[in-house]
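Continuing from the previous page...

OK, I double-checked the sequence for Sugar ABC transporter permease against my notes and this is the correct one:
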Amino acid sequence: MASDVQLKTKRKISKDQWTAIAFLIPSIILIIVFVYGFIGWTGYVSLSNYNSLIPDFSFAGLKNYLYLFQDFRFQADLRNTLFFTILFIGAVIVIGMGLAILIDQKLKGESIFRNIFLFPMALSFVVTGVVWQWLLNPSTGFNQFLSVFGIQPKWYTDTNILAGFEWGSIEFGLPVAIISVVIAAVWQMTGFSLAMYLAGLRGIPDELREAARMDGATEFQVYWKVVLPMLAPITISVIIIMAHISLKIFDLIYAMTGSGANFVTDVPGVYMFETTFRGNYYANGAAIAIIMLLLVAVFIVPYLWSSRKGDQ
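Thanks. Re-ran it with the corrected sequence; updated C-alpha cells here:
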C-alpha cells in the first residue's frame, strides 16, 4: 500500500513542469499548424488539378510529378542542383578547413583575419547576388582587368556544358555558368565552416599532437592521422548544413542570374516561384516544393536519426 502511494507521488507532475508545459503548448500548436499543417496542405495540392486561378482540388494522382520529371526545365534544375551542391560543399569544406588551419598557427592579427572571413555571413544572399552579378558581368567587373591579358570569360552567361552527354531531354554535364554562382555562394558561406573548424581545432589537446610528433610523425601526418579524424563530426555537420542551403537555394540565384539562358543556372526554388506565382500552376509548384522537401530530408533525416542514437 505504501509503495502505491510512493509511485503516485513520483508520477505527480510538479508545478514547474506544468509551467513548462504551458509555455510549450502555444509553440507546439503553431509548429503543428504553420509547419506540418502547411506541408500537408502542399502535399494535398500537389496531388490535385489546381493549375489555374480557379481552384480545382479534384484528385490528379501523380500526374504533376510525372510531368515534372519529363519536363526539360526541371531536369535541367536537378542537374544544376547536383553540380552546384557538389562544388559548393567541396569548396566550402576545403577552403574553410585550410583557412582554419592557417589561423590556428597563432598568426599575428588573428582576430582581424577571422572577422574578414566571417563578414560575408552578415550579408543576405540577395546582396551577395547583386554584388557578384556586377563583379562577374562579362562587360564589367573582373573582366575589365582580365581583358589586359586577353581573357574574356562569359561567367554566368556561358551556356556551355562541360563533359556533356544526352540524358533524358537535357545535356547532362557541368554547366559552366553555375561555377559563377558557386563562387558567390562559397565567398559568403566559407566563414561558417572556418568558424566551425577553428573551434574544432582549438578543442584538440596539444598533447595529442606532441605525442604524435614524438612518435616520429611529420606535420602532414599529424594532421592527416590525428587532427582530421577528430574533425570528422564537424565535417559531417558542415556537409549537412551546406547541403540544406544548396538544395533549397533561391535568393542568390534569383538576384544574381535568374534561370539563365537555356536554364543553365536555374534551380527548383526559382522554378517553383515562377510556376506558382507567375504561371498560376499551383499544383505543379506544390509538387516542386514537395520534391525539394524530400531532397533536403535525404540529408537531414539520417543525420538526426544518427544523432539521436548517439545521444542514447
